Amino acid sequence: MARPRFMPDNFTLCLIAAMATASLLPVQGEVAVVFGWVTNLAIALLFFMHGAKLSRDAIWAGATHWRLHLVVFGCTFLLFPLLGLALKPILAPLMGHELYLGMLFLCALPATVQSAIAFTSLARGNVAAAVCSAATSSLLGIFLTPLLVMLLMGAEGGSGDTLDAVWQITLQLLLPFVAGQFARRWIGHWVGRNKLWLKNVDQGSILLVVYGAFSAAVVEGLWQSTPLLQLGGLVLACCILLALVLVLVEQLSRRLGFNVEDRITILFAGSKKSLATGVPMAQVLFAGASMGAMILPLMIFHQIQLMVCAVLAERYARRPEVADPLAESA
């Protein structure tokens, strides 16, 4: 029996199921701590496998792709804040002043790391460049986000423990990637022959992140703390912001002459905001009850961006495959 055209792909259905399960059976307490460790291990495995898959030539090409990195950083730390300010006449009435401040906080955050790279991999984009851009964006955000918050809304607060944040990024992402590079001589060919297994690791890590993030939102009272009308306005505002960013990023990368693999990387690395970075930063920058209003827009935007990017990644993945000599070289 043929699959109906209107039916979403299996991965999108899994994302919907993860969100629904988290709404009904959110992971919490000690179980949430264990689940967090499992998610971190899955992400570390993802980076290890990408380290084993990519050749040194591919990594060097990605790291030195400065035009792509400048566009990603510009979209993350300039385009988002400017759109947040420009859209105030539309966004503020939809959600109220406090949640609008949360949207400005969202706009000041760095890009995601694991999901941006996973979606780039699923869509067969420039994974090496995505690794470099996303990781660097997360590091830059440690310094730039508090400054942008003060510029956008006058909030005061420290930047937190910078050395600890750098260490966490290094431990969870960069060390597994380097270990994968070291192990490439032994398992590189196996990884190249088992691309479906790597795809399952990509998708599995995203599903774990979605379930964990949405569980945390539900436990914090996502469905009780905000009036339904205001919540609907927030969802609409997040959709408007994401749609504008996706269109502008795609058009900008196309006009600058990037190839399709680089455009995919720019799209997924330059249009996403990090929940994992945003929540700890909110705990430092904001105090008391205001923190809930600061992170609720990020929680909603995070779920929407994952759903939309999953669909986009699957559409890009269906294009004809072309061999990449850099990825295959030793």
UniProtKB/TrEMBL annotation:
Alphabetized InterPro entries for the sequence: Na+/solute_symporter_sf (IPR038770), Put_Na-Bile_cotransptr (IPR016833)
Residues passing through the membrane, by range: 34-54, 66-87, 99-120, 127-153, 165-183, 204-223, 229-249, 281-301
GO cellular component: plasma membrane
Keyword Mitochondrion annotated: no
Keyword rRNA-binding: no
Keywords: Membrane, Transmembrane, Transmembrane helix
Cross-referenced Gene3D superfamilies: 1.20.1530.20
PANTHER family according to UniProt: SODIUM_BILE ACID COTRANSPORTER 7, SOLUTE CARRIER FAMILY 10 MEMBER 7
Record protein name field: Solute carrier family 10 (Sodium/bile acid cotransporter), member 7
Origin species: Halopseudomonas litoralis
Taxonomic lineage of the native organism: Bacteria, Pseudomonadati, Pseudomonadota, Gammaproteobacteria, Pseudomonadales
